[in-house]
Amino acid sequence: MNKNKKKTHFAWWVLVGVSIMVGLTRGGLNSSGGLFLTPVTQDLGIRMGDLNIYFSIASIVTMVFLPFAGKMMAKYNLRSLLIISVVLQAGSFAMFGFMSSVWGWYLFSIPMAIGAVFLTQMAGPVLINNWFKKNKGLMIGIMMAVSGGLGAALQPIIGNLIANEGWRNTYIIIGVAIIIIVIPVVFFALRMSPKEKGLQPYGADEVTEEDESKTPVLEKGVSFGVAKKSSALYALIAFLFFITAIGCFAQHVPTFAVKQLGYDGIFASNAMAGWMVGALLGALAFGFLTDKIGARNTAIFAMILGLVPVTILLTSAENSVMFSIAMVIFGFVVSSIGTLGPLLTSALFGNKEYSQIYAIVALGLAVAGIVALPGYGYIYDATGSYTPVLIGIACMMVINIIMIILAFNGKKKLEKAGAFN
Q1: Where is the Major facilitator superfamily (MFS) profile domain (predicted)?
Q2: I want to staple 63 with a disulfide (CB 3.0 to 4.6 A). Which of 51, 156, 315, 366 is the partner?
């Protein structure tokens, strides 16, 4: 019996595998898109706003596909689904290297987005929710921290590759490399549920033995039918819309640094590495804080802290040290997208029909990309400055504090109505 208890639970391999997968696809592919904007637009003579439309197309595809993703994960073999997804996402990323017209980005953004839905949004939270019964906040934080760490390592590598090998070769090298790495990780480390390995979720025995009162809390929740009619759901979707719109600024940081402020491309890629370091620290911090002080208080803290880097960028962006500090804090705050989204969903609606509710909540992420990514590009094209964007971001952070308060007020109404069961 002791021997079995000391054996490493497969849940830890799932955590390692999903962290690497999310890190390379989200921290690597998704987060590096902004590094290519300036060289591609300059080389091909494309307007910044026009190229940014491919991010919007990807977001539209994500929005349409998200409701089906949860059902597909339950119906089809997880490993096969994720292997197909990485070929779609990373393969499409590699294909950008062969394009000579903006229409190529528009076309390949479609399969790229379909693959990314599973790899970067759905698989991580669902697998951790399935495999862990305690400290879920910390586990999601660890997953997002690895994403930030891999992103921090990859940003300067990708920036240097663009400078030395050109943007075309860099697209191809990074896309193919991620396919080669992620497929074995998915095959050997990931399973949909503990039942496939004849196991219970990690911590299930401790929940039962140490605090039986926790068991019904873990099992109860709001049904999807009730949740979709609640004010809490729409406030949460709004929160994720605005925090994702704030996070979309990451794709414009290289352009902001190079074109508006006069820094070189290497500095811009290093600044993005600082953003990723901040994301790593933030993911761990927000996961830990959610377990300790609750998702509501953690979300409000994140929005208040987010006003600090915006203020720095509005007043001291020409100072390279202050700019770098702002990037680290910005990354710290924006890491809350991946961490707080799943945890707020669980805190507001429980785990009863988590995957269905989270798939709808995540629509806020998708819609934000449709609006914010090209919107910021067109604002820059029209004004030659990202100052209006930064002012808008500050306003969105204040609005988000209000959204969190409204969401938890909506939860109280659900509790009074007896919707939790």
Answers
A1: 11-412
A2: 366
Task: Name the 3-class secondary structure at 211.
Answer: coil
User: What is the structure's pLDDT at 205?
Assistant: 65
**Helix axes of 295-316 and 231-247: crossing angle, nearest 10 degrees:** 30
Q: What is the pLDDT of residue 211?
A: 41
CA distance 10 to 161: 37
Q: Which residues of the chain have pLDDT under 50?
A: 1-4, 207-218
What distance lies between CA 195 and its chain's CA centroid?
28
Query: Given the structure tokens 């096969």, which residue do they identify?
Result: 80
> Given this model, what pLDDT does residue 173 score?
93
φ/ψ of 132, rounded to 5, equals -120, 135
CA angle 279, 296, 150 (to 5 degrees): 15
- In terms of Cα–Cα distance, which of 353, 75, 412, 108 is closest to 230? 412
Q: Report pLDDT for 206.
A: 58
Domain ranges of the chain: 13-191+207-415
**How far is the CA of 210 from the CAs of 134, 136, 140, 350, in angstroms?**
12, 17, 23, 21
Provide the residue type at 347 as one letter: A
CATH number of 13-191+207-415: 1.20.1250.20
Spatial separation of the C-alpha atoms in residues 333 and 312, rounded to whole Å: 14
> 350: helix, coil or strand?
strand
CA distance 335 to 36: 22
Contact 270, 153 (CB under 8 A): no
Q: Please say whether the beta carbons of 114 and 65 come within 8 A.
A: yes
State the Cα angle at 81 between 80 and 86, rounded to 5°.
100
Angle at 26 between CA 25 and CA 27, to 5 degrees: 105
pLDDT for the residue 239 = 92
What's the confidence (pLDDT) of residue 217? 39
